[in-house]
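Before relying on records like the one below, remember that each one covers exactly one chain. Contacts with other chains, cofactors or solvent are not represented anywhere in the record.
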Amino acid sequence: MTCHYVMQPGAKGNYWFHIYSAEVQSTVMGSTNSQPQPTAGTARDAHWDTRPIHDPVTASWNLRISQADSQKMIHGFIPKEMEDKWLCYSTTPDNAQGITVVHLCRSWGKTEQIALKVQQADAVNDASGSSQTWIILDITWERRVGEQDLGEQEAKEDTIRVCNYILDCALPEDEPESYLPAK
């Protein structure tokens, strides 16, 4: 599965695009709002030859997310154009015990940047009745040397941005404590 860029009007996080040129920013902001969503497994079915994380670092996260957000993450997105910078898809390992791995990859270089283990947590009652909650169990990212290393907090912040603006999730941006190492 894959990701797409979606910039919601008035959403916080415009800083996410500050690392890109204005040309890319305007293209990304309007690029995929109306694209149909791919079906599960599309990224692998489309023969994307992604490179896995070479030198992985993993940290626990234990961030609760809604069922709607989990389904968007699992569903993913396949980039249609060069401007669609991210490919997102999910896999379920053979002995997963209900765990799904969501892969966030840079589409042009086909390199995996972040992997998330998500799992259904439990049923909770909300205003609309009963719904399922999910949890991001842990996050894995590429270890880099020196200043280019993301570190745990930045890896989590990048994940929030990609999921919110690429997959149209509603993960908490205003709660920096959710980015901190799990206790």
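Residues 14-179 form one domain.
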